[in-house]
Every structure is written in C-alpha cells, then in structure tokens.
Amino acid sequence: MVRNLKLTLEYDGTNFSGWQVQKEGRTVQGVLEEALGRLLGERIRVVGAGRTDAGVHALGQVANFKTESLVPVGGIKMALNGLLPEDVAVREVAEVPPDFHARFSARTRRYRYNIYLRRRAVGRQYGWFVPYELELRRMEEAACAILGEHDFRAFCIASSVPKRSVCRVSEAGWSVGDGEVHFDIVADRFLHSMVRLLVGTMVEIGRGKLPVDVMGKALASGDKAFVGPSAPPCGLFLVEVMY
C-alpha cells in the first residue's frame, strides 16, 4: 500500500542554496530526501509547496511524499527530527488523500518580510536593516495598489517570467513592531522573487526615491523600469500555506 504523507516544516535558510535540489549546493529538499531515505529505506522524492530561494526562511513550508513504509506518522516525525540538521525542523506529519499535492492543492500562501529600522547584532540574519527614514503611509498606499488580480511580470526575475504571470493578492499591508516593520502578503501564487521586488520597490517609495504610482504603472505595463531593487533574501519568510 502506498501512503501519501504531508510534512509541515520550518527552516533557517541562511546556509541553504534554496529549497529545490540542485547539481551543486546544499538545499532543503536535498537534506530532507536524504534523511527520509535513510529512515524509510526507500528512494523518496519530496514535493514542496513553495520553492524558496537561497537565504529565504520558512515557518510553515508544506511538502508531501509517497511511501510504502508502514511507520506511524508520530514515529516518522520523531525519527526525522533526529536525523535532520539543526536548521530544519518537522512540525507535523500527517497522512493525506492520494491526490493531495503540496504545490498544486494549495489555495493561497502567506509570506512575511521583516525590515529592521535599527542595526542589530542578534537576529540580523532574519531581517533587512534599512538605515533610512521610511514614510509608512506611502508604503501602505503602494501595498494597497497590488490588491486584487494583476499581471506581476514586472516583479519577476526576467529569466524566470512564466507564460502565466497573473496572481490574485488577497492581503497586502505593513505593520509596525519594536524598531522594525513587517510586510505581509497572501496570494494564490507567487512569481520568482516577486515579494522581494515588491518590498524593494516599496522601500524606495517610503524613502521618497520613487513616486507611489509606480506600483500601478509597473503592473499595468509590465515594465521593469518602474521597479526598484530586490530586497535581500534574509528578511523573507514563507509563513503558511493554506489548502
């Protein structure tokens, strides 16, 4: 009997070359498949809900895999956490229907980006230190412009623009913490580096380097000339995948 198992994971992306297995470089998918293979004695192929880039973190990444093993889910969770490196942790293992697919069954995903307004020594790998004054009212206005269904090809790495680049954004906004600000976004899909390019552009808007209306112009035209630089990966977290 083949079982379909769903994993909910968190990981620190600092020392990973991203989620997806590559010819060279340490990846989350790679260390996960290696640990599962050792545990279950099978060649395991893991499918992730989101292909996070190098340096990007996750609090609620979801993955699934097929196995003939009869080991209970509780035993798999405990044993897998004992085999994985310290920068990856399994939060939950659950048996799911055969047609469940971590990527294609997902309805929406939530990402968060952290910006530090003061220099930090502790936790510096989990946020982008921006040493400028930011006008959050302008940044919030820019965030409102991306709500709804739009073509986000301008906010995608040029070499990775897919045939279909339309995404539906259901939530987008900024919140203030202690010496930091956070950008939260929920959408049905995300393009390569989309969140980081959105954040980088909104920071330039908050600094007064770009007008607020560049967001609308970039979406309407698909022209990358309206888009600011990409924010660094260290501040980005895949928070949750909803099904």
Any overview of this molecule?
The protein has 243 residues and is an alpha+beta fold. The chain folds into 2 domains: 3-96, Pseudouridine synthase I, catalytic domain, N-terminal subdomain (Alpha-Beta Plaits), CATH 3.30.70.580; 108-242, Pseudouridine synthase I, catalytic domain, C-terminal subdomain (Alpha-Beta Plaits, 2-Layer Sandwich), CATH 3.30.70.660. 22% of the residues lie in helices and 30% in strands. Strands 1, 2, 3, 4, 5, 6, 7, 8, 9 and 10 form a 10-stranded mixed beta sheet that branches. The longest helix is centred in the N-terminal third of the chain and has 13 residues, at 28-40.
How would you summarize this macromolecular structure in one to three sentences?
By secondary structure, the chain is of the alpha+beta class. It has helices spanning 28-40, 73-83, 136-144, 194-206, 214-221; strands at 3-11, 47-48, 57-67, 88-96, 108-116, 128-129, 148-151, 166-176, 180-187, 236-242.
Essential attributes:
243 residues, alpha+beta, Alpha-Beta Plaits, 2 domains, ten-stranded mixed β-sheet, 5 helices, 10 strands, 22% helix, globular
- The helix tally amounts to 5
Would you identify the CATH architecture of the largest domain? 2-Layer Sandwich
Low-confidence stretches: none
How would you characterize the largest beta sheet?
Answer: 10 strands, mixed
- Choose one word for the global shape: globular
Radius of gyration, Cα only, in angstroms? Answer: 19 Å
What fold name stands as the CATH topology of the largest domain?
Alpha-Beta Plaits
In CATH's first tier, which class of the largest domain applies? Alpha Beta
